[in-house]
């Protein structure tokens, strides 16, 4: 049985900067999901994540258990699990959408001044997923962890 599972969480500030955390999450998700026929979308803004996962029930639920144990997330809120007949995000093992005005305007239209996915309801989620589906995928660059070409030098030019 195919399901769609959406959740929201708050990013825990850690040792790594945001770009490094996002790059790590995306690389890990894309590799794991491609191997396990899981598809979906990730959105991050204002300190919060929203992610939608789609695939076989056993695979998605097992992945979500791992996500709940990830120390980069807290206040993980699972929304209703929905049985689906086809994968909505089938082009992406994990689509990533950058923060943008369409999404900011959507959250304003539902009475929120910023991205606060914990306040979404099932109707809002459906509309939000439509926007995420239509918005272009963003490829996040992988940032070296130590300066210029991992040698400790900073590029000042």
From TrEMBL:
Gene3D superfamilies: 3.30.70.100. This is BLUF domain-containing protein. It holds the Pfam family BLUF. It comes from the Bacteria. One of its GO terms (molecular function) is FAD binding. Residues 2-95 form the BLUF domain.
